[in-house]
Specification:
- The chain is an alpha/beta fold and 312 residues long.
- It folds into two domains: 202 residues, DHBP synthase (Alpha-Beta Complex), CATH 3.90.870; 77 residues, no CATH class.
- It is 29% helix and 17% strand.
- The chain has eight helices and 14 strands.
- The chain has a ten-stranded mixed sheet with strand order 1-8-2-3-7-4-6-5-9-10, with helices on both faces. A four-stranded parallel sheet has the order 11-14-12-13, with helices on one face.
- A hairpin with a 6-residue loop joins strand 2 and strand 3.
- Helix 7 runs parallel beside helix 8.
- Bound molecules: threonylcarbamoyladenylate and magnesium ion.
- It comes from Roseisalinus antarcticus.
- Keywords: ATP-binding, Cytoplasm, Nucleotide-binding, Nucleotidyltransferase, Transferase, tRNA processing.
- GO terms for molecular function: ATP binding; double-stranded RNA binding; L-threonylcarbamoyladenylate synthase; tRNA binding.
- It is found in: Cytoplasm.
- Its EC number is 2.7.7.87.
Length: 312
């Protein structure tokens, strides 16, 4: 079910073809193995969450073949350009302002206006990104809540049968995830990782704030950023009340539907795009049909619950 691909031209070509077909492929980076999918394809990105059995839609890192292509997907403020020049390709992820209309799946950013990007240094990762020729969304290639994989064996132990293929590049050199630095919406140091905080501070000429230690987490969502629509949201609705727009699922048709056939993969793929659309159309009250609490349904329900929580 899950193909193991050799680290040669044929293996890379096969991996790139599977990505182009909307499948998920695990591949080595210098930090850990990533579970990749075409970042422009909603269903392919939904498959990542499904394979990992991830109970939440956390935003994902987009992997690019070279720093030059970053500008196609996001803005590169001067500090970001300096960090990129110093540490890319390498174990640094930058959170940058997303370019509107970039064409990335909103599932990649979990609907946020920022995008996490990284240009990995691993030869196979770069060859694969080059061969595929597009942006690849990839979290670590492990089932949710388990250790990050640093060999193809780890990947197979956790995800065999749930992903299309793993490109076997042997053990990862760095072995811990990338360091994450945000330049938007606020400059901050989000995750310690392969590049030391001191090296980042040296490059910028000053240290960065670390959310959670310098800020008191009073506002929910400050630490775990998430997108919420402007309108109110009511869950488990079977009919619309006065003034509500009903977002359907399966047999509950609604004004719009997450998935008319009741397919959770399709519902996940549509979720953020439909919420954004309702926002744009000025929907003040949104009601959502019940979503089965299984598989991807748990991640969908997690997002909906957060979006439904009253905001100050
Ligand atoms: O080394 C790595 O970074 C590996 C390899 C595969 O590249 N990837 C990885 O991805 O560790 P993941 O999904 O396990 O961690 C990505 C983290 C998430 O915790 C998420 O919160 C954060 O990046 N992130 C992604 N997009 C973000 C955004 N727009 N704003 C803030 N944080 C973001
Ligand atoms: Mg991870």
């Amino acid at each position: 079910m899950t193909e193991t691909l050799a680290p040669d031209n044929a293996g890379i070509a096969r991996a790139a073809a599977l990505l182009a077909a909307g499948e998920t492929v695990a591949f080595p980076t210098e930090t850990v193995y990533g579970l990749g999918a075409d970042a422009r394809d909603d269903r392919a990105v939904a498959r990542i969450f499904e394979a990992k059995n991830r109970p939440r839609f956390n935003p994902l890192i987009v992997h690019l073949a070279d720093a030059a292509s970053v500008a196609e997907w996001c803005e590169l403020p001067p500090d970001a350009a300096r960090l990129a020049a110093s540490f890319w390709p390498g174990a640094l992820t930058l959170v940058l302002p997303l370019r509107p209309g970039s064409g990335l799946s909103p599932l990649v950013t979990a609907g946020l206006p920022t995008l996490a990007v990284r240009v990995p240094a691993h030869r196979l990762a770069r060859d694969l990104l080059q061969a595929f020729g597009g942006p690849v969304a990839a979290p670590s290639a492990n089932p949710s809540g388990r250790l990050s994989p640093t060999t193809a064996d780890h990947v197979r132990a956790g995800l065999a049968g749930r992903i299309a293929a793993v490109l076997d590049g042997g053990p990862c050199d760095v072995g811990v995830e990338s360091t994450i630095v945000a330049l938007a919406p606020e400059p901050s140091f989000l995750r310690a990782g392969g590049i030391p905080a001191e090296a980042i501070a040296n490059c910028l000429g000053h240290p960065l704030a670390t959310p959670g230690t310098t800020e008191t987490p009073t506002a929910p969502g400050q630490l775990a950023s998430h997108y919420a629509p402007a309108g109110t949201l009511r869950l488990n609705a079977t009919t619309a009340r006065d003034g509500e727009t009903l977002l359907g699922f399966g047999k509950i048709r609604g004004d719009l539907s997450l998935s008319p056939s009741g397919d959770l993969l399709e519902a996940a793929a549509n979720l953020f795009a439909l919420l954004h659309r309702l926002d744009r159309e000025g929907a003040e009250h949104i009601a959502v049909a019940p979503i089965p609490h299984e598989g991807l349904g748990r991640a969908i329900n997690d997002r909906l619950r957060r979006a439904a929580t009253p905001r100050p």
